[in-house]
Amino acid sequence: MPEKTNRISFQGEPGANSDTACRNMFPSMEPLPCPTFEDAFNAVETGKAELAMIPIENTIAGRVADIHHLLPESRLHIVGEYFLPIHFQLMVLPGVKREEIRSVHSHIHALGQCRKYIRKNGWKQVVAGDTAGSAKMVSEVKDRTMAALAP
Q1: pLDDT, tens digit, for every residue of 103-144?
Q2: Which helix (H) or strand (E) holds 25?
Q3: Which CATH superfamily is domain 7-73 in?
Q4: Top-level CATH class of 89-150?
Q5: Comparing C-alpha atoms, which of 91, 73, 89, 26 is closest to residue 52?
Q6: Would you list the domain boundaries of the chain?
Q7: How is the beta sheet containing 7-11 ordered, strand by strand?
Q8: Distances (CA, A) of 118 to 91, 105, 112, 124, 139
Q9: Which listed site, 29, 116, 133, 135, has its alpha carbon 20 to 30 Å from 11?
């Protein structure tokens, strides 16, 4: 039997919406970032985490499709729910003007929620694994034409 842990896994980088949900709902637990939803599930199944914070649906963009395939195949079950109001910031490198932006990177649901604004500005949408990861990538790549939608 695996030793009990005080970690809660989530998909994404620190600062992602799921990380915020973990910290709000379970402030005494240590968030464990995972690259994929499957990794977050596996963290619980292997004892690396006690719980997983997994988004099931988005009121604007709809259900999170991966979860509806992964959950039935796992040994996990839903034990609670948390509603997190989502707010996005358009993040760029310091000094970048809106006219310089050519592409916006973020999670598919974030892009969907902000699609009218993105389209109005003529920017290309680029799907990334999560919101915080897209902000990290924009900051590391240092391309002034790239922006990220993140909390």
Answers
A1: 999 998 899 999 999 999 999 999 998 899 999 999 999 999
A2: helix 17-25
A3: Periplasmic binding protein-like II (3.40.190.10)
A4: alpha beta
A5: 26
A6: 7-73, 89-150
A7: 30-34, 7-11, 51-53
A8: 13, 11, 9, 8, 20
A9: 116
